[in-house]
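Quick start: what a row looks like.
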Amino acid sequence: MNLELDGMHALVCGASEGIGRATATELASLGANVTVLARREAALREVAATLDTSRGQRHGFLAVDAGDTNGLRTSVAALTRAWPVHILVNNSGGPPGGRAIDADIAAFVDAYTKHLIANQTLAQALVPGMREAGYGRIVNIISTSVYEPIPNLGVSNTTRGAVASWAKTLSRELAAGGITVNNVLPGFTETGRIDAIVADRSAKEGKTPEQVRAGMLASVPAGRFAKPSETAALIAFLCGPSAAYITGQSIAVDGGRMQSI
């Protein structure tokens, strides 16, 4: 199996922590040059400095807010002029919790901008270089809510579903050029996002965080939450040469929690 990414350049979004950071680490370990993107420059500098350089890789960062569409477009255009990108990992923090019916319109607009519109902006900037190289991988980190909506995450459920449909459409449009588009659907994972969900449920349900976590774990056959590195391993595989015939798929990493087929 060929998992090597020597000579490839990956842009990993939301890479300052959690699954994004774990993905950047995994791709670098396979030989990729990695540019990490998020809002916090100091955190990105620290991440870039820790990435593997044993194969002569060079790594960099872009400090930009995914919600700033013009800034995102400008920053990535400058990057690709100097350094074409072969791998795009779309990843952004999830919207706040709450029921869909209670959400302000602004919450939907904000979520769509940071997820769907940001992904489209990046794809339009990077796909020409992927086509020229004859090699492209786009992986979107979204959620199991694509298949089974999660209670009290109304804006997130809606937005994630839109991204999945966008990705499926894009996969069919780009396949002939050697570009794949897939979605990875993390289940409960030990990240800051899970801490926020636990705190929100704790406040709304009048339970302790420990009780909330225990209830969540009861729904996971594996009996534990995932480590970010376990999700990153699937992402890295989908970015490699051996995954060339896998496209348009949404693959869960959830410890068996989803009951749908």
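That is the whole record. The chain has a mean pLDDT of 95. The two ends are 27 Å apart (CA to CA).
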